[in-house]
Amino acid sequence: MINAEEIRKTIEQKLDSTDKFVVEVKVKPGNNITVLLDSDTSISIDDCIAVNRHIESVYDRETEDYNLVVSSSGLDQPYKMLRQYVKNIGRDVEVSLLDKSVFTGKLVAADESGITVYRKTKVKKVETEESRKISFSEIKQTKEIISFK
Q1: N or C: where does the chain have the smaller number of CB atoms within 10 Å of the terminal CB?
Q2: What global pTM score does this model have?
Q3: How far is CA 121 from the centre of its chain?
Q4: What is the pLDDT along the chain (149 residues), one digit of tens a residue?
Q5: In the chain, how many domains are there?
Q6: Helix (H) or strand (E) holding 51
Q7: Are 41 and 95 in the same domain?
Q8: Residue 12 in contact with residue 5, Cβ under 8 Å?
């Protein structure tokens, strides 16, 4: 059985000294492996192909039968690690909290303790500004708000 942590270590060795990083490795029954990558700048299809080939060079398909998918962590995927939060400072986000509330606004800061989200609201011609510090322990998920404006 292929181990997700072993695959992660293999990929991290390949990506060492680049701005690319592993977001998630999933190994499901039947050795169905999914690898999500991200970068401080950008991820290309060539980056995904290179990681795919590296994994295939380490894990022989004759020994371990597996299905492998390597892709970028898409815009529709929630942030899973601090590095993604830092990379996306300045973007509009929707933060779903464990108390079932949702806070939307611009991600303005991120560190080990949590994030800060700023928003302006306008109710009956009264404009208010709010900045909220949210600890990671309160966050269920954070997603980027995709806008086509």
Answers
A1: C
A2: 0.85
A3: 28
A4: 789 999 999 999 999 999 999 999 999 998 999 999 999 998 999 999 999 999 999 988 888 889 999 999 988 899 999 999 999 999 999 999 999 999 999 999 999 999 999 999 888 888 999 999 999 999 999 999 988 87
A5: 2
A6: helix 45-58
A7: no
A8: no
| DSSP-assigned states of every residue in 10-41 | HHHHHHTTSSEEEEEEEEETTTEEEEEEEESS
Q: How far is CA 81 from CA 97, 120, 147, in A?
A: 16, 26, 23
Q: Residue 85 corresponds to which tokens in the numbers above?
A: 């939060």
Q: Tokens for 5, please give them.
A: 């942590």
Q: What residues make up the domain containing 91?
A: 82-144
Same domain, 40 and 92: no
Beta bridge mates, 109: 116
How far apart CA 89 and CA 26 sit, in angstroms, is 27
Residue with token string 């606004």: 105
CB 137 within 8 A of CB 113: no
Instruction: With respect to residue 149, please indicate whether it lies within any of the assigned structural domains.
Output: no
Q: Of 19, 44, 72, which closes a domain?
A: 72
- The C-alpha atoms of residue 16 and residue 7 are separated, in whole angstroms, by 14
74 C-beta neighbours (distance < 10 Å), count: 10
